[in-house]
Amino acid sequence: MKLKKRIPVIDQGDKLGFWGGKFGGNFVPETLKKPIEDLEVLFNKLKKDKNFINERDKYFKNWVGSPTRFIKLENLTKHVGGAQIWSKVVSDANGGAHKIYNATVHCLLAKRSGKKVICGDTGAGYAGKMLSMAAKKFGLKCKIFMGAKDIKRQQPNVKAMKKNGAEVIPVYSGSQTLVDAVSECMRYWVANCDKVAMCVGSTVGPAVFVRICGWSTSQISRELKTQLVDEFGSIPKKLKLYNCVGGGSSSFGFWNEFMDYDKKQCEFIGVEAGGPAKSKKHAAPLTYGSKIGILHGAAQYVNQNTDGQIEETESISAGLDYPGISPLHCFLKDTKRARYTAASDEEALNAYKVVTKFEKLRPSLEPSHAFSVAISESKRFSKDTIVVVNSCGDAYKDREIIKRRLGKKYV
Amino acid sequence: MSNLISHAFKKAKSENRPALLTYTVAGDSSKKLSLEILKSISKKVDILEIGVPHNTPVADGSQIQTSSYRAIKNGIKVNDIFRIVKDFKKFDKSKPIILMGYYNMIFQYGENEFLRKCKISGVNGLIVVDLPWPENKKFASKCKKKSIFFIQLLSPTTTKNRLKKIIKDSHEMIYFISMLSTTGGKLKVSSKEILSNYNKIKKINSKKNVVIGFGITEKTIKSLKKADGLVVGSAICKEITDSIKKRQNPVTNVYNVVHRLKNKIK
Questions:
Q1: pTM reported for the whole predicted model
Q2: Quick one: pLDDT at residue B2?
Q3: Which residue of A has its CA nearest to B187?
Q4: For labelling alongside B213, which of A158, A207, A275, A315 has CA 20 to 30 A away?
Q5: Where are the domains of chain B?
Q6: C-alpha dihedral sign at A309, A314, A315, A318
């Protein structure tokens, strides 16, 4: 299995949509074959179309707010006493997280295909909130599928979705979290694919959704590349990019433009959700060696039992609470381009405490996982090492959990 | 290639009626009960479809989901399903059985091992909901070598060009999904429209036995009786759920439903 240079990773799949011959694909009911093919044709055409790219860039710049800040965390760097720690503050983006890029592109595609309704899944509520914002902006009706458990724990985002006019449909099946929301959303699309467009909230699902999402979030690394050159004159000799990984959309977008650099120069570190320290359950299929299986239309490493039933996950962060992982990350892991590890709930909470103590930055619980590993590894790096953490979400949505776990003063 | 499934269609045709296919989930609500249900409906049904329950089913509506979750909760494993098939075949070896499920269950078991177990336990056909054409070509030919029908699915969204290619690669039985829906949806198109799509398939190759499924209930079955076969699934799963709720015997209640279905297409 080999990663090719000078070809975007999203375009390195084979004819049937498999990366490295075994990750991804289209394990979908026959009914979805046609709408998926239509979407592929449309996306392949538009991603080469200058007008479409200009349109995307216009919305990214004026509406999403690009570029998001790239800042040095001076106090944290001093406290840790090793590498220089920087952050790409993607939570600056309109709506407060990276999910806005994928949502915007899906709405633009839906408009081009003449669809009037868009449906989507959500875990932490960010994908849903952003889709509801974009749908409102582009005049589309919006339906969001969300696990009943997530609705309870991510109320601020639920309120935002409703305010934007979206219908939030609670999903009571299975574990009542993201995995069930994605299943229910796909089922809804099976029944309504003639009139409704679907947005998958991360780099997961049938191959075309993986590609569209990766293409959209790559805006993050495009900006970062320019910002690094502005700051250092060139891409630093020792660069380490830390990102949390749930489905894998923000990390893929954070790394994409640096793919062709040698990993000795640009190292990618993906941090999965290890779950509570005392629990055997986790949402870290890459770290804990889960087997390849099929989930939501794609072959990937996924938490499952020997029979092939998908296993329940556990994580304090709803956005990482997913048993599978993007085929793109499976590919990056097996080609050894990226390195994956996990942080526990407690480690993430602790990192949140440290970051908010030293900096004017409030990373949500998802990027707090990445901060945890970045902080602990930075100690042993030289001072000319540039560590960048993608702060891809804002902690506003997590205030209830943080209040309960850490106390009022941390909110 | 001929197997019990072909005989079942021939028999129904000789009686001038469509074949009746039922779908029940293996292990719903227990291993023992699901076998009893199969035994009791067997004489009214031409082909038995047995669902392999999966916990992330992307094409099933709420009725079949409920049955599947119940079966999984009660501990059903793939090996138990083969045992149910084997035990059923001891009771009635001439009744064809089709397993229907999602690909991950086969993938984890290993394609070859799964087919070997199908063969020894007496499975005659397979429907894999999320392994569409052309992805299923290799697996379908493995099935053929074991004389197990791999049943291709067709949908109203399948383009004409694709229809031709799939039918060409199909074995003797084809499953036509009546409408854009998950299983158990309310029939939202007219039977006339469904039959017109059905005829398009038959026109391409009249020799294939084409069954229609999704949305078929006691109310709708009669209007589609021109088809080679009709599948009823969610309506039966719902009957099991309702029986449990009412503390009635699911075996008798399901038998009564199947009996009424059969009378409507005689």
A1: 0.97
A2: 62
A3: A191
A4: A207
A5: 4-264
A6: positive
